Amino acid sequence: CETCSKEEAKYRCPRCMKYSCSLLCVKKHKLALSCNGVRDKTAFVSVNEFTDLNLLSDYRFLEDVGRTADAAARHCIVHSPATKRLLYCLRNKARGCNIELKTLPVGFTKRRENSTTFSSVENKFYWHLKLVFPHCHAEYTLKGVPDDKTLADILKPYIDPVESDPVVCQRLKIYTASPQSDVRILMKIENRNRNSVRYNELDASRSLLDNLKGKVIIEYPTLFVVLKTLKNDMVVLGQ
User: Fold this and answer.
1) For the whole model, what pTM was predicted?
2) What fold, for 77-227?
């Protein structure tokens, strides 16, 4: 068992492939790794390991995609003129800020959950934002983040030893215990080949808007918070 390291393992998680010995250890590993236990249907499988079962799984996955797309195409609200005008306005305002904002087709999860708005009165974006902490396997979703807020202020409720929430602080202990100088904020560069994934390093002292200028964003920004002292497989552009 990879959780208690005492008993013989009886179960294997379909999602993260961790071995467990009991229901208690299964629940503990899900809580520790934020694992939902559901098999990732889109996980990469090499040609050497590809079997008839993988082919059948892919076929069923494509059928599910087809059904979801068909249901979305019949949804009257998301295809309404008002919704289309809102999306056009968001993309147009983003272009004015030198941000290439792209929206996904109806039915995609990111399209459905995106809550980004633009205030004409204040002339600013209020972004839907996702923070990912890879070293702790934690993700947090923020709504209504003003574009003039600095990244350092955005991260304070999560990794600041004094201002962060006690529950969050405990979960992100490895971040709160590290000096702020070790924290790096990365954002994936879109429109690159899957075998050439690169990230841009953002400046924590600058505003969210300044950091997003000149970038391509699909629906909303996803920021990866990593530590310099810990190894990760995220390659920064130019390295």
Assistant:
1) 0.65
2) Ubiquitin-like (UB roll) (3.10.20)
